[in-house]
Amino acid sequence: MKKRILYFLLFFLPLHLVPEHILRNPLLDISIGGKRLRVEIAASPEARQTGLMFRETMEENTGMLFIFPTEEYRTFWMKNTYLPLSIAYFGKDRILFETMDMRPLQTNEVYPSSGKAMYALEVNQGWYDRNGIKKGAVLNIPDGIRAY
Q1: Is pLDDT above 50 for 19?
Q2: Radius of gyration (Cα) for the chain, nearest Å?
Q3: Which of 71, 115, 123, 133 is a plausible cystine mate for 127, CB 3.0–4.6 Å?
Q4: 20-140: CATH homologous superfamily?
Q5: Is 3 strand, coil or helix?
Q6: pTM for the complete prediction?
Q7: What span, in angstroms and rounded, lies between the C-alpha atoms of 110 and 131?
């Protein structure tokens, strides 16, 4: 009996200490313009719809990478998003063509891409400026990462 309790405490209890979004969205190490980030992957329709809603904190050098099945004009908004974010849009070639800052909890303001995007990367507001990431930077992610 003691072994069962110990087994439970060592292996199952820690899962309750991990934030739910970490269990739900896979994590991936990527880089953009030579700067490394650890990102959650939003590759499913549900993950892309929820995004970073209801998060109260996000560590520096982390974010969420939205992966879409096709390259199209994209629009994001900040409904139920408490964190000030910056977004970058990338084409299917993974070249950055636009960044913009987004204000928290906005339901009447949208942030459309100026071109067709297959990837969008949300990070803490100002991250792109602080790290010297500009238009033309390359998004490096492992091959085979796809939307579903």
Answers
A1: no
A2: 17
A3: 123
A4: Protein of unknown function DUF192 (2.60.120.1140)
A5: helix
A6: 0.84
A7: 25
